[in-house]
Amino acid sequence: MKDMKKKTIIIIVISIILVTAICFVRWYNGPTRAVEIFEDEIFEKDYRELVKMVEFMESLVDVQDAYIDSTDGTMLVHYKDDRIVKDAEISDEDVLSTVSVLMKKGYFNITKHGSTIYFERWRNQFGCSKGFVFSADGTGELDIQFLIGRMELDKTDWYYYVSDYEKWRAMN
What we know:
By secondary structure, this protein is α+β, with helices and mostly antiparallel strands. It folds into two domains: about 1-30; about 30-170, no CATH class. About 45% of the residues lie in helices and about 30% in strands. It has an eight-stranded antiparallel β-sheet. A hairpin with a 2-residue loop joins strand 4 (about 110-115) and strand 5.
């Protein structure tokens, strides 16, 4: 009887360890292909707001880089003349409303880097992020740090991107 209890406890412990390991690996690696398909649906639902933000970012003609990560009405801006403004004000109420909507929908930040405008939707603490990106110059060249993958979306110049420092470092 004692052997049966020991075996049962060992099986339970091994099962818990196995399930925990699988969950960790899935969490570390991020969304699976099934989640990427789900992201396509999210992209379609959020498309109108994403386009509004692209239009705003493209209107910043003297700006090399811009970074919005909160709904406080400010952004970090690196101008083409090398000036950097930490708390540049976003004065357009429609843009502020759109930022708020996107942040509530789960976006972490909205970034313009050169002619690449991207919307980080998912990230983990290990340097992996995923989201949607727009190639403003139409070349499809995406200027995202540690980019390891992209998938073309149904809308012109839009992509789903994957950025991962560890995987990028191993590939380069």
